[in-house]
Amino acid sequence: MQRRALTAAATGVALALSGALSALTTTSAQAEDVVSPLVLDAPNRVVARSYDGYVYSGLGFRMTAKGAPFEIRATRPEAYDGPIAAVWQRGAGAEDDVALPEGSMSSWQGLDHFATVRILREGRRPRVIRTPGCFNGEATKVGPTGPISNPYPWGCPWNPYTLGSVMGVAQDYSASMFPEWGSALRLKPGTYEMVAFITPEWREFFGISEADGRAESTLVVRKGRENWRPTARTAAAAAQRAATADTTDDGLEETTDAPTAESAGALADEFAPDLRSLPAFDISLNEKGTAMRFGATVWNGGAGPMVIEGFREDHDHAARSGPGDHEDHMTAYQYYFDGDGNQTGYEAVGEFAYHAANHNHWHFEDFARYNLYGADANGDRLEDVVVKSTKASFCLVATDAVDLTVPNADMRPEYTDLGSQCGGRGAQSLRQVLANGHGDTYHQFRAGQAFRIGNVPDGTYYIGVEANPADEPGGVNEGRNLQELDYSNNDSFRKVEIFTTKRGVRKVRAAQVGVIEEWSFDGFLRN
Fold this sequence. Notes:
- By secondary structure, the chain is mainly beta.
- It has 2 domains: 2-235, no CATH class; 263-316 and 325-510, no CATH class.
- The protein has 5 helices and 32 strands.
- The chain has helices at 2-29, 200-206, 232-244, 315-318, 418-421, and strands at 38-41, 45-51, 54-55, 62-65, 70-75, 85-89, 98-99, 111-120, 127-133, 139-141, 164-169, 173-176, 185-186, 190-198, 214-223, 263-265, 275-277, 281-285, 291-300, 306-311, 329-337, 343-355, 361-364, 368-375, 381-388, 400-401, 429-434, 438-444, 451-452, 459-467, 491-500, 506-510.
- The strands form 6 sheets. A 7-stranded mixed sheet has the order 9-8-14-15-2-3-13.
- Strand 24 (368-375) and strand 25 (381-388) form a beta hairpin.
- Helix 1 (2-29) crosses helix 2 (200-206).
């Protein structure tokens, strides 16, 4: 049944795309003066290696912005009750914006059916690759008039509950259409001719000439080493290198010593962080049906970063600290900044603790909380907690972009990997940052983190995700550790149903949130 749903969904997407492309032609005809700076480029020749019959290559095709930047901004309603709406920003004012037709983006991966690549070899069936227009590929500066560094993000969002994205190519920059380690292509060693072209409807909409919307190249495939191919870790490392290649500064004023007082300065609303929770997702049970696993994202929707630094009280003894020593704690301070990245204040906000088991790095205590709530006979959430997750401390990392259209969003945050941000046991101090516009996603699958439901009866429940949890209802800021703009948007609740099949297999079904359809990696509908 779910497989049929997948086929039906694919058909629906195709119909929506057909309608969107028709709308593109109509819209472009209404704005004949619209001209895009985009040009599709390619080198004359690309050499790639074949490993076990597969080729991993970006194929060399790039989108270049000549004389002006190219930028698309896309948003979805916070209630997730509407489609993604995208706008082509052509100038400094809203009067220059061009709205893209509804249905132009069925996902956050980019403009649907933007370009096609054909790989040709005499006597063989052509290979056809279709790609959305993400524009946030690995970018290279190709002219003197462009900005000193790339102002656009690397890659397009993956989280199904993303709320906004920015895609673009800076002036005099060239961005790859495919990742360096793109999808595996089954190609034998030899010489191939490649032809890439922007879909005619998109080319006409953006005012791209036929010559600028087409590129040709020769692909030479040579046999590589046997029994080797890029792994997920290799691809992730390549993505990380690309994401941080031109990042030399986080834009924040340095602080090298612990503050001498608990509090100084004040948090200004116009530059304040604002922690929020997305709905729990990727919800499933373990094989025994005794643990509920899920993903959860806490993100910063404010106009400034959430910056927390930790300092040991005894710096001299830090290097000698061993497992179980009381020195495996740091006093934590939250820092405030203005729009130029200058420090304006700080506040003592708790502590960091070193977690050796399964982590081997530092966590900020009490950053988020996960609870499973019961429901009444009408299916409405009750306040009583049925199961608590023991996960409460976190290493703050900007794992994924949630909404890069918020004010002052950090397009290319520095703090994106656990290795450099979370610190080792001997660290005397550390800084953890959740950049504005970005979220920190954790998947609860370990024992204690996932909900233990072995003794929980079938029925309706709610997964609660609470950012900056309240420990003293009715107290100052309800006892929350961190200072932020708005405490009313810290919670999210996802309705789920636990049930047992006729064969005695326990399962969980999550209620759909708005129009979002969650698909698992094996092609099944989650909700």
